Each structure stands twice: as structure tokens, then as C-alpha cells.
Amino acid sequence: MVAMEPVFVLLTVLLCCCQARRRNVLLIVADDAGFETEVYNNSVVRTPHLRALSERSLIFQKAFTSVSSCSPSRSTILTGLPQHQNGMYGLHQGYHHFSSFDGVRSLPLLLQKANIHTGIIGKKHVGPGPVYPFDFAYTEENNSVLQVGRNITRIKLLVQKFLRSHKEEAESEGGEERPFFLYVAFHDPHRCGHSQPQYGAFCEKFGNGESGMGCIPDWKPEYYTPDQVKVPYFIPDTAAARADLASLYTTVSRLDQGIGLVLKELKEAGFENDTLVIYSSDNGIPFPNGRTNLYGSGVAEPMLVSSPEHKQRWGQSSQSYVSLLDITPTILDWFSIPYPSYSLTGGPLVQLTGRSLLPVLSSEQPWSTVYGSQSLHEATMYYPMRSLYKGPYRLLHNLNHLMPFPIDQDFYVSPTFQDLLNRTQTGQPTGWFKTLKSYYYRERWELFHTTLDPTESHNLASDMAHAALFEEMKAQMVKWQWATSDPWVCAPDAVLESRMDPVCRPLYNGL
Ligand SMILES: *[C@@H]1O[C@H](CO)[C@@H](O)[C@H](O)[C@H]1NC(C)=O
Ligand SMILES: *[C@@H]1O[C@H](CO)[C@@H](O)[C@H](O)[C@H]1NC(C)=O
Ligand SMILES: *[C@@H]1O[C@H](CO)[C@@H](O)[C@H](O)[C@H]1NC(C)=O
Ligand SMILES: *[C@@H]1O[C@H](CO)[C@@H](O)[C@H](O)[C@H]1NC(C)=O
Ligand SMILES: *[C@@H]1O[C@H](CO)[C@@H](O)[C@H](O)[C@H]1NC(C)=O
């Protein structure tokens, strides 16, 4: 027995060393948020909580969504697959009714199978349910989205509830604690004028304590005047747009304070040193040339990744190109869960084309390529586009370029767009960098040098000096479309015949 002792001690040491350290994930996604934060050097808007998070994060300067629409983007965040591959072609709610394919193996599904405790609080906006299962779910599916997505006191209490249930579970299992994945999806700072105009253009009055607005005890609204705001190049510099932006800023203050509350709960529950925190947004801000576009102003996203195990780059900025398609591979990597081998609709094996971001948390990576793919937003808004952003060049393929670019309902009624329409109709100066006509009618191919031409105004697609680059980028984009089983890979001038070996059959339609 005496001789056994050293072995026993050695075994114990080995077990302790080999046991992975406790690792959790908190994923925070804002709704239509952009760069209106202190983190991205907006010197007007006050966002102390996001700034504090950025001081413990790597700050991405080149992060992009692959699709500029809510449900499609959320489906790509939660599957790592572009919208054309996972099936969420457009908005999920109501009559739009888009859904991912039943066979998709989503992140929450894979985590649940790996015995990770999963929770969602806020805007889900993806389906079907069995593809996106969560153990703990307070979403618009069984609550008011204003309460679970914008009432930051309610969100704080729900985070408390999730973390408490997590600890109670561990206690009842005899201290054996499994990891958790908590997804907090704010509905702020999404527009509100279309659905709840009484609360203001961005729901900036909801819960501000004024008569009829209710109260959110934890929110101290920050107010801004239209002359204070910074107008990005893609928004008309008009009184209407400035007032719209001032409302957006106020709503951003609720988002920021909400993030502060969520992080405080995490810390007070003792999880701050073992939880990977990711902050981003689903698509560009809801202004002209923003959301629903694959231009830079529609797809560039704020992104913070805070890893307690990678302090070496905290507070630094990264120029590596990253995509929301990278979130699923990153979280799987963090939990050391392999992606399963399976195929959808009997086709080739599904492969993730995104990558884990963990390496860039240690040292800058030479990543300089991201892809984009959009099909619809609302059910009526069919306007398929594919894009490749590589180094300074952004290539866009507007498959149905002969159609006018579609406009969504909540953006249509926005003060900014109404004013733009009125000014255009009455021949007044619009203060915008485009005309409505050029916005509606696009070239089939657009190629921009985004550093020499940051507003993406000079199309180089038919410029002979860029012919070789154009062909090379086209080929690379099509290769990605094939790799991700894109049903639109042959459009618009051919038809995909996929019974045996998939092949594009020409239409001779003159395109
Ligand atoms: C903000 O500005 C500072 C100083 O010019 C710069 O070093 C930093 O990279 C900027 N950060 C972002 C996220 O743009
Ligand atoms: C919403 O669903 C969750 C389980 O998914 C449940 O625990 C919660 O009580 C439900 N909330 C409401 C208001 O029905
Ligand atoms: C926000 O949630 C808290 C806690 O549930 C509640 O007391 C408050 O009335 C809610 N505020 C609004 C505006 O609904
Ligand atoms: C987390 O790490 C910080 C800094 O090392 C330390 O001060 C704090 O006590 C730690 N928190 C927990 C819950 O271990
Ligand atoms: C645009 O014009 C319509 C009709 O003339 C008017 O009702 C509306 O107030 C105008 N909107 C803006 C933002 O100027």
C-alpha cells in the first residue's frame, strides 16, 4: 500500500493537469449597430462600458458580416455557413418565413451534444427550433422583444437567472460544473419607427421615464443634438438624417449600459476569468447604402474578442480580415469540439470556410480575404449579390442587376429616407453622395479599391488596367460559391444542373 502512494499522487497531478481549464462563452450581438462608439473613435457618443470591454479585448478594424440582413446574418453566426448554404435566405419572422435547412448542425446544437449548457436572451430570429436549440431561452418567441431585447433591467435579471441556474445545476451534480454558452442578443439599436413609432425612430424613448414611456430602472439615457452627431460619408448630411442619428446615439447608450450590466453579472458570478466574450453586430446601420447592402458601409462590423487566456493583445487593434462566419469555428475551437462530418441534401460534405480567431488573439495574422452572400431581406426583396473583399479590393456581383435595388419597410418610413425621397422628387439638393437612380440601378459587376476610393464610387470592373485582377477575383469568388454549395453559382447567365456532376448550362440570355 505504501508503494502505491506516489503513483496515486502522480495520477492526481496528471489528472489535474490534463483536465481542460474551465471555459465558457458569452456572445453579445447588437442589432444593426455600427461604429457609433468610443471604441471606434466616435468622440461624441458616450459608451464607457464598450470602451472598458475593448481594453480587455482585441479590437477588430476589419470585421465583416457575410450578409447584411438580420436573420440571415444570425444564421451565419450560429452555423458558420453562409445564408445560401444554411437556407436562411431572408427574414425568419411572420410571413417572410425563411428558415435554415433541417439538417444543418448549428453551433447551439453541437454545443448541446457536447454537454455544454446553452442559453439565449433577446432576439433569436432564426429557426426552425430543432436546428437552433437552447436549454434556456427568453426570446421574442415567448416574450415581448422590447422586454428581452431592449429592457436592460430585464436582461440583467435574465442573465442573473441563467448564471444562477448554472451554479445550482453544478451544486446538484456534486460540484461537477459543465461549461456554458450564453448568447445575449440585444434588439438595440434597431429602428422602431415601423413597428412602435410611439417610442421614437430608434425606440430611444422606450423606458426613459417620460409619461407613457415606462421606466427602465438601470438606464440613464444620454441625449444628443443633431448638430453634435458625426455623419458618415454614406448618409445624407441633412437635418432629418442628423436627427435620426441623434436618436440612434441615445439608443446606443442603452445598449452600452446593458452590456455593462451583463458583464457585471458575469463578473459577480465569478466567471470573468474563464469566459470568452465576443461582441459584434449582425449588419450595417439602417441608413442608405448601409443595411441590406454588401458595400463596406453595409457589412463592416464592430468586433471585440476578449479572452482571459490571451491578455497579450488586450487593448490592441487588429487589421486581420475576419468574418462573422468565423464565430462558430472560434467557439468550437475554444471548447475543442470538432466540426462533424455530414452532408446537406445529399451533396458534398459540409465544410466551414471561416476560421478560428484564437490565433490572432496571440499575434497578428495575414488574413486578407472575406466573402459575402445575400439573397433577400424581406420576402419581396429578392436581390442576390455575392462579394469578395481581398486586400484593398472589393468585388461585387449583382446577379439581378437589371432590377431596381429593393427597399425594406422599416427603412422606407425612416425620416432619413423619406427626406431623401422628398428632396429627390422636388429636385432639391439631397446632401447624399449618390443619386437614388444610381442606388437603385447598379452595374452587374462592381470592383472598388477601398483605400484609394473609400466611398466605393469608382467602379473598376471594366477598367482594362484591372482586367487580370478582376478575372482572378471572380474565379476566387466562384470557387468559394462551389465550396459552399451555392445554388446561385451559375446565375444569371446559366442554369445549375446538379443531378450528376454539377455543371452550369448556358442560357444564351445575352448577359
Ligand atoms: C483610434 O484612434 C487612435 C489614435 O489616432 C488610433 O491609434 C486607434 O487605432 C483608433 N482606433 C480605432 C478602433 O479606430
Ligand atoms: C420561455 O421559454 C423558456 C424555455 O424555453 C421558459 O423557461 C420560459 O418560462 C418561457 N417564458 C415565457 C414568458 O413563456
Ligand atoms: C423593465 O423591466 C423591469 C424588470 O422586469 C420592469 O420593472 C420595468 O417596468 C420594465 N420597463 C419597461 C419600460 O417595460
Ligand atoms: C480574475 O483575475 C483577476 C486578475 O488576475 C483577479 O483580480 C480576480 O480576483 C479574478 N477573479 C476570479 C473570480 O477569480
Ligand atoms: C415628405 O413629403 C411628404 C408629402 O409631401 C410629407 O408628408 C412628409 O412629411 C415629408 N417628409 C419629410 C421627412 O420631409
Write the layout of secondary structure elements.
Blueprint: H1 4-18, E1 24-30, H2 48-54, E2 58-64, H3 70-79, H4 83-86, H5 107-113, E3 117-122, E4 136-139, H6 145-149, H7 152-172, E5 180-185, H8 239-268, E6 275-281, H9 296-299, E7 300-306, E8 317-318, E9 322-323, H10 327-334, H11 358-362, E10 369-374, E11 385-390, E12 393-398, H12 409-412, H13 415-425, H14 436-440, E13 445-449, H15 467-483, E14 494-497, E15 503-506
Parallel strand pairs: 1-5, 1-6, 2-8, 2-9, 3-4, 3-5
Antiparallel strand pairs: 2-7, 6-7, 10-11, 11-12, 12-13, 14-15
One 2-acetamido-2-deoxy-beta-D-glucopyranose binds next to helix 7.
Q: What is the tally of helical segments? A: 15
The major sheet is characterized as: 9 strands, mixed
Bound molecules: 2-acetamido-2-deoxy-beta-D-glucopyranose
Unreliable segments of 5+ consecutive residues? 1-19
Gyration radius (Cα, Å) is: 24 Å
Given helix and strand content, the structural type is alpha/beta
What is the average per-residue confidence, as pLDDT, rounded to a whole number? 95
H and E string: HEHEHHHEEHHEHEHEEEHHEEEHHHEHEE
Strand content: 15-25%
Residue share in helices? 25-40%
Q: What global shape is seen?
A: globular
Terminal CA distance: 84 Å
Which oligomerization state do the chains in this entry correspond to? single chain
DSSP strand tally? 15
How would you sum up this structure, described in words?
The chain is globular, with a radius of gyration of 24 Å. Helix 7 runs parallel beside helix 8 and helix 8 packs antiparallel against helix 13. By secondary structure, the protein is α/β, with parallel strands linked by helices. The N terminus is likely disordered. The protein contains 15 helices and 15 strands. The strands form three sheets. Strands 1, 2, 3, 4, 5, 6, 7, 8 and 9 form a nine-stranded mixed sheet that branches. Strands 10-11-12-13 form a four-stranded antiparallel sheet, covered by helices on one side. Strands 14-15 form a two-stranded antiparallel sheet. One 2-acetamido-2-deoxy-beta-D-glucopyranose binds next to strand 4.
